[in-house]
Amino acid sequence: MARQMTGAEMVVQALKDHGVEVIFGYPGGAVLPIYDAIFQQNEIKHILVRHEQAAIHMAEGYARSTGKPGCALVTSGPGATNAVTGLTDALMDSIPLVVFSGQVPTFMIGTDGFQEADTVGITRPCTKHNWLVKDTDKLAETIHQAFHVATSGRPGPVLIDLPKDVQFANGRYTEPKTARVDHYQPKVKGDIEAVTKLVELIETAAKPVFYTGGGVINSGTAASQLMRELVDATGFPITSTLMGLGAYPASGKNWLGMLGMHGLYEANLAMHGCDLMINLGARFDDRITGRIADFSPKSTKVHVDIDASSINKIIPVDLPIVGDVAHVLEDALKIWKARGRKVNKEGLAKWWAQIEEWKKVRCLAFTNSDKVIKPQYALQRLEALTKDRDRYITTEVGQHQMWAAQFLGFEAPNRWMTSGGLGTMGYGFPASIGVQIAHPDALVINVAGEASWLMNMQEMGTATQFCTPVKQFILNNERLGMVRQWQDLLHGGRYSHSWSDSLPDFVKLAESFGWKGISVSDPKDLDDAIMEMINYDGPVLFDCLVEKHENCFPMIPSGKPHNEMLLAADAAAFSSGAALV
Amino acid sequence: MAALNIKKGATSHSAYDLRDFHSEVESSHTLAVLVDNEAGVLARVIGLFSGRGYNIDSLTVAEVDHKGHRSRITIVTRGTMAVIDQIKAQLGRIVPVHQVIDLTTEAQPVERELALFKVAATGEKRIESLRLAEIFRANVVDSTLESFVFEITGTPDKIDAFAELMRPLGLKDVARTGVAALPRGA
């Protein structure tokens, strides 16, 4: 039934109708009517951020930890342009977001008005879709479509640009179920003939590997469950991209660890040497493939992806299956069981024996110290002291992110939030607040480097105001660690601008925002300090002073294939020209 | 494993089974893209081509179904088969895009372009231009004592050929519409 209301009221009504509980935002002139509507209700909670980029990352953290779309509200002009990094981040990592931006009134569009920007033009390449709504009667329908587009198929961020006069004007509100969403219906069922071929490959492969990605997480918990069932029933080894961690449990017996540039030796060599690669919801990213020409040269490659454009984009595959991971796995399991649950047992036994040999290399080994905290040791202790808790981890971007992926274990999906595709420094802190808003009683830790963390440190105020007890676990090496590492290995040790000068006193900084600050530099004090952080009922800034010159290994140097990994022990002998990617 | 004999890049039920995915040969392809006629849809399509580094040789766009708000964009592009497939897939995931057809691969298309040529000449050259126009079935749509404007319809190749012939005869200006194309048959 159509009801009359203002455009601003429609925004709030539509959010309620879509089950939205929280919206992250920052007010400004062009969104005042919507803020007025928010003021006059209590169902939707608004989280006031300190910068619009952080609003988007919070919405991302919320979305990734719940599986529901995240929502944000920003004003016109600078509000919208500040959101661009977050939108691009969400697009690269396929995170469903619905973002509302204010716009100057329709009659002023194109006049270079105050706080006017061509928001739909600017955000067109960094959203899955966007709309400029010029007619209040079409607003409700557009919002309903926006939720549909953001969450269907390969998820992604969408933006609705709302001129101020459209927010003020009255119009007809239509319910979500009446919205026209018929034409955008991505295919979720895989071609059954292709799935049958996949089963045939599973039955005969001697050296198979599952290569899984963020698509398994995005597909929902059912996908993770089905994948675990198939992996365990076949006994195939499984590795995952950075984005897919947690879909298969780290404690699972078939788990090889993460693959890729800083992935585990056994995972990368299994990728290189396999005869059957089953890609579930991953996209052959350049951090995964290394040199394309030498990528897994002897394997038959199967690629399951809901986005047809991911298939054959980088690596030509033998068996493409366009569809949702959960749907495809359900069919594959059904067919495989019906055909008698066959696998090549003899081949698999030999394959596992080979993998066990690779594991003996102990690629994550590092030289510990009793004088200075090694970053790997800090993460080992964090893992030991938190793994049994209801724990969510976010990260910033850099060495600490890779170490966190290597040393922390994830037993369930939606517990690991990191900026994978775009590599956005400054992502982790706001994301951790978004996660904590969604899970108020959980232990939410942002594993950070000091340089990344400073990029969105203004959100300390947000955490204090909304009582989110987020733990900022900063591995402080006073360096831009990954930049320094590349300069060390690839640029002759010329450390051009890769140190963090003039750092704040993190403990005093914490206290100035009403947080707890903890600083630790002696390995002996680390466990007590971590326990103090965990047990404190409020936000904690944990300044962990670590070894300044530690490099992250193993590493596939840029432009090298999987079987030319660099281990910590080989690093001294390594020399190479500057890398292109 | 080899027993299954799956061709590289093959999808089941597809004419693509017949071609070599790895071919490095670039060829010209005419794509028909059916879209909702909404604000910004052309910018999305063009932005995709520039953002991902694909070529556009020709582009036409017009509403073809006023009631249904549908437009048809015809793009002539160039690339290896792998690139053309990628362009198709990328176009296909734009939300207001309903259908993408690679006319060159999927249907021998009828392709036509309209062009206007302004030729300024007197004497023998003027007569020669008129004679050639007749051979090419071009119409005179404007005439002064010193100039003609010819209207010609045909394949892009035919229009190129006409342009070559007109150049020495006093060609002043050309306006071309770009290619419109439909598959042959029912």
Automatic annotation (TrEMBL), chain B:
It comes from Pseudothioclava arenosa. This is Acetolactate synthase small subunit. One of its GO terms (molecular function) is acetolactate synthase activity. One of its GO terms (biological process) is isoleucine biosynthetic process. Belongs to the acetolactate synthase small subunit family. It catalyses: 2 pyruvate + H(+) = (2S)-2-acetolactate + CO2. Gene3D superfamilies: 3.30.70.260, ACT-like. Chain A, domain 2. The keyword Protein biosynthesis does not apply. Its EC number is 2.2.1.6. Catalyzes the conversion of 2 pyruvate molecules into acetolactate in the first common step of the biosynthetic pathway of the branched-amino acids such as leucine, isoleucine, and valine. It comes from the Bacteria. It is an enzyme of class 2 (transferase). It holds the Pfam family ACT_AHAS_ss. Pathway: Amino-acid biosynthesis; L-isoleucine biosynthesis; L-isoleucine from 2-oxobutanoate: step 1/4; Amino-acid biosynthesis; L-valine biosynthesis; L-valine from pyruvate: step 1/4.
